[in-house]
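Researcher: Final request for today, and then I'll write up notes for the group meeting. The sequence and the SMILES for glutathione follow.
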Amino acid sequence: MTSYKLTYFDIDGGRAEPIRIAFHAAGIDFEDNRLSFPEFGEMRKETRFNSVPVLEIDGIVVTQSNALSRYVGKLAGLYPEDDTQAMYCDEVLGALEDILHRIVPTFGLKGEELQQAREKLADGWLSTYVRGLDELLSRGGGEYFAGGALTVADLKAFVEIRWLRSGDLDHIPTDLVDRLAPDLVAHQERVAADPRVVAYYASRS
Ligand SMILES: N[C@@H](CCC(=O)N[C@@H](CS)C(=O)NCC(=O)O)C(=O)O
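Model: Predicted protein-glutathione complex:
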């Protein structure tokens, strides 16, 4: 039997969350190796790109969250078989990754500098990406981004939109998505109610 070990921070979110949900949906056992931030600091330099998530498949190390999401998504039936729909799914995964790359540079900031950077982000790039994702959801038919069914793109969008609306990001208005793209909020709720997602979180509690 193939062994899977997924290493990431001990948070119910972030880049590894769609991978964890997809593993669970596939019914595949995996070692959910959750690190505290100090633990990650100690092993950071030993990871391939000084970052997580890292998936070990029978001891072979693989990185890059979107590649991992696609791989596990295929195992779980959460990735489109049709090439065009797969491309749509990938477009969404890439756009969601871009959002993370825009937010991460603000993490080290404090006080007024943080506030200014976050407000600029909210009015600028975040608004652009939220509107763009809204457009991609419409293109997909309004319920899911690709193939008319739940895919890893929906899982990643669910995790990220939940985060943007959570209040965990200081100076990012929690109603930003609600104001710009109510359909993305409905999408977040739809994915949260999916039996596979519900079953995953039930397994966590
Ligand atoms: N392109 C990579 C980015 C990985 C990444 O930046 N991960 C963050 C956590 S979500 C990290 O490990 N940051 C640690 C650091 O930059 O020191 C991926 O998608 O997996």
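Model: The mean pLDDT is 98. Residues 111-139 form the longest helix (29 residues).
Researcher: Thanks, that's everything.
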